[in-house]
Amino acid sequence: MTNLKALLVVLVMAMAVFIIAKPLCLRFMSGADYLRRRNVWLALTTTAFISPSFWIYVAVALPLMYWAAGQDENPVALYVLLLHVIPPVSMELPAVFVNKFFDLSNYRILAFAVLIPTAWRLMHAKDKTALGRHKGIDRYLWAYLVLQLIFLMPYEDITNTARRGFLFFLDCIVLVYVVSRICNTKHKLAEVLAVFCLACAIMVPLAVFESQKVWVLYRGLPDAWGIETEVYLFRDGALRAQVSTGHSLALGFILSVAFALWLYVANREPKPYKRIAGMSGYWLGLFAAMSRAPWIGAVLGYVVYTLLGPKGVKSLVKVALIAVPVAALVLISPVGPKVIEKLPFVGTVDSFNVEYRERLAQSSWELIQKNPLFGDPFFTRNLEQLRQGQGIIDLVNVYASIAMLYGIVGLFLFVMPFLLAMWSSWKQQRRAIPQDDDMARMGASLLAAMLATAFFMATGSFYGVLPKVFYLLVGLGSAYGNLQQSISDRTSGGNKRQ
Question: What is the predicted pLDDT for the residue at 498?
Answer without folding.
Answer: 32
